[in-house]
């Protein structure tokens, strides 16, 4: 059973890598990050992700990694994205997490009612991604 699950995980990772880390950047060129960010916002709207719990569940199903709310301040909320899929992507030199940050921005905006934009920071040592949602 474990071998079958590992094969499924490898298959899903391969497909994600093929599309997100190879094909889309080839098609979108220098606009890749911007388009993926806005696509993430659109995905959150399409799937009616309106709360952090919805985002957690979606990230788990889509195998984007584990998303955790780390710190909440008046003008920002800090998130960490981690897990084996994130480690694998970082180890393969994939540093593009704009799709995820767009989704986070949209969900935070819906939850707070405030305009939100996200910034991405790769934490190489910890092999995690920090996403800072800034609220206006």
Automatic annotation (TrEMBL):
SUPFAM superfamilies: Ligand-binding domain in the NO signalling and Golgi transport. This is YslB like protein. It comes from Lactobacillus gigeriorum DSM 23908 = CRBIP 24.85.
């Amino acid at each position: 059973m474990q071998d079958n699950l590992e094969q499924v995980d490898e298959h899903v990772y391969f497909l994600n890598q093929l599309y997100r880390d190879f094909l889309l950047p080839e098609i979108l060129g220098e606009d890749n990050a911007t388009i993926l960010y806005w696509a993430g916002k659109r995905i959150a709207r399409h799937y009616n992700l309106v709360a952090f719990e919805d985002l957690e569940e979606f990230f788990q199903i889509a195998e984007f990694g584990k998303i955790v709310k780390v710190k909440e301040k008046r003008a920002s909320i800090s998130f960490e994205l981690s897990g084996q899929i994130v480690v694998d992507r970082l180890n393969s030199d994939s540093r593009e997490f704009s799709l995820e940050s767009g989704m986070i921005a949209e969900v935070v905006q819906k939850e707070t009612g405030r305009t939100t934009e996200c910034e991405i920071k790769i934490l190489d040592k910890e092999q995690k991604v920090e996403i800072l949602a800034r609220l206006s």
